[in-house]
Specification:
Elements lengths: L1 H9 L5 E3 L3 E3 L15 E5 L7 E4 L9 E9 L12 E2 L2 E2 L3 H15 L3 E6 L8 H4 L4 H9 L4 E3 L9 H9 L11 E2 L5 E2 L8 E3 L3 E3 L10 E9 L2 E11 L15 E3 L2 H14 L4 E7 L21 H7 L5 E5 L6 E8 L2 E8 L5 E10 L5 E10 L22 H18 L2 E4 L17 H14 L9 E4 L22 E3 H7 L5 E8 H9 L17 E2 L3 E5 L10 E6 L2 E2 L5 E7 H4 L12 E8 H11 L13 E3 L2
Parallel strand pairs: 5-8, 8-9, 9-12, 15-17, 17-18, 18-20, 24-31, 28-33
Antiparallel strand pairs: 1-2, 3-19, 4-22, 5-21, 6-7, 10-11, 13-16, 14-15, 19-20, 21-22, 23-25, 24-27, 26-31, 26-32, 28-29, 29-30
Helix pairs in contact: 2-8, 4-8, 9-13
Length: 630
Amino acid sequence: MARSWLRNWATQMVLVAVAVSIVLVVPLAAPGGIPAGPRIVITGARTISDHVSVRFSAARAPRTQTNVHLLAFNDLHGTLEPGGNNIYGQFAGGAAYLAKVVKERQARYGPLQATLFAGDNIGASPLANGFFHEEPITIASNLMRVDFASVGNHEFDKGSAELLRIQNGGCHADGCDGPYALLKGGTTNVYPGADFQYLSANVVVDATGETLLPAFGIKRFKSAPGMRVGVGFIGEVLEATPTIVTPTGVAGLTFEDEAEAANDAVAELEAMGVHTSVLVIHEGGFQSSPAALNGCGGNLAGSAIADIASRLDPSIKVIVSAHTHAEYRCLITIDGVTRLITSASSFGRILSDITLTIDNTSGELVAASAENTIIGNALNTPGVGVVREPDVTREDPAVQAVVDQYVEASAPLANQVIGRVAGNGDLTRTGSAFGESTLGDVIADAQLIATTPEALGGAQVAFMNPGGIRGDLLASSVSSGGEAIGEVTYGEAFTIQPFGNSLVTKTMTGDMIRRLLQQQFLGCGGTAPAAGRILQISSTFSYEQAPAAAICEDKIGQMWVNGVEVQPTDSFRVTMNNFLASGGDGFTVFNEGTDALGGAQDIDAWVEYFQASEPTGISVPALDRIVALT
C-alpha cells in the first residue's frame, strides 16, 4: 500500500476546469515529500451552472479511456411521498420522482453506470414507510436498480438483525406487508429483501471479527473490445454511530475508524487488480452560507469528512458523502492530494451524477467530475400558503404504484387519535420576543420525560432545535382525519416531527450550556445556521436573555435548573436529538458533551407524552422559560 501511495502521490497534477472561462487551480504536490502539517485547499463552483472536474494523472502518451457514470443519492429516509419538501425555490424529492430521473440517466449511460446511495435510506421515515418496517422504500430502491449502498446510522435503528433482514429478505415478526413488486416483474407475498448490496467496511461483529456486511463491492465495465475496467465501492458509516442510536441497535458491534477501515479495503481491492476505488460513506460536512446547488465552502475544511479524507490512502480520490443532509460538490486538497467529494442533500431532492474517466490499460482513475441535479416534482413553486400541484409526468409509474399502495394502507394509523390539547388550544412555532414557542416547549418536555429514568439517560434538561419542528399543531380546528376539535392524531404528530431522530443524553457543564446558548446569536461561536435559531427548552430549565447586548458574554444572564442557579462547574445530564448531538444547526458546543447515551426516537417520545396526559390532555404552556435579563 505504501508503494501505491508513493506512486499516486508522485504523479499528482490537478487542473480544475470551470465553465464560462473560470479557472480554479489546486496546488500541485511538491516533489521530495509531503510538507509538515496539513495544508487544506477547498474549491468548488461559483455558480450553479459551473462545471468542475479534476485530473489526477500527469500528461503521457495517449491511451484509450472509458467514462463510467455514478448516480448517487443519500438520506432518502423512506420518503415515498414528496410532501412539501423543497429546495432552491422548487418543490423537490419523493421516491417516484427520484426514480424517474435515475432511470432516465441509466438509459442514457447504458452499461457504463452504477447507482448507489450513501446510507439512511431507511429509518427516520414518514409514516407510510416506517409503519411497514422500512420495506416500501427498499422495494422502490430495487426498482431504481441500485447496485451498492453504504449503511447509515439509521440503518441500525432497529438493530443489526433487522438490518440483515432488510438486506436478505423474509417476513418481519409482525408479518409481511406485501404484495411486493419485483424488479423482474410480478409480485411476491414474502418480502424479497434488497436487490442491491449494503456495505459496511468499518462495522465489525465482535463475536467473529468479520464485517457485518461486505466491506466493498466491485462492478466491472466493458471498456474496449476484449477489455474491462473495475471500480471498487467501499461502504462505511460514521464511527460515532453508537452515540446516536439506541444501545440495543448496535449491541455486539464495533464501529472502527473510517479512514483506517477504508485504507484496509482499498489495499484488498488493489491486490485483486481493482485500481479505481470510490468511498461511499455516511458522514459529511456543510457548505459555508449561503449554499449553492453545486457549490462548496470553507466550512468543509473543519468537517468530519475532511478529517477522514486527510487520512485516506491517496488512491481513494472520489468520495460520495452523506449524513448532514447538505448538498455540495467539492474538490478538497490536503497535503497535495486532491479528492472530489459530493453530497446530495436528502429526501430524494437531489441526484449527484459523477463521471469517472478510467485508463483502459492500467484501470486507474484519470479524472473525475460531478454535477448535482434538483429532482423537481411540481407544476408550481413553493410559497406562503401554496399547496404543491404534482407533476405526474415526472413520476416513475412502477415506483408510484408502490407509493400509492402504502400510503393508502397507512391511512388508518395516520388518523389514529393519540391524545388531546387541553382547552382545545393550539401549539405553534410562533416565538416569544426571546424565541420560545409553545410547541417547542412541549416537544422538549416530552424528550425530557422519555430520558429522565436513570437507565435511559438520567436527564435533567432537554433542548430541541426549532428547525426540527416542521409544522404547527392546530388542535382548535378539525383536520382532514376527521378527529374532534382538540384531538391530536398520529399523522399530525408525525408531520410535525417526521425525521425520526434518536434522542441522545450527554453530560454537560454549566459553562458548556452558557456557551451553547451564546451560539444562538451571530458571531458568538456558532456556525451557520445557528445564529437566529433559538433552542427550545424543557420546563426544568430557564435563563435570562439579552439579544441586543453588544458582546456575546452579555447575551446570556443567569440560568436555573429546577430553580437552582447554574454554576460554571456544575454538571447536568442533557438530552437533545442526534442531529444536535453532532453539532447540527451550527451548535458545536453539543460536541463537547460526554458520556453519550442513545435513546428512543423523538416521535415515540412525543406520542407517549400525549398518551400519558390523558384524560386531561396537554396544557398550552406559558412562554416564561426564557426571560429578559434584569
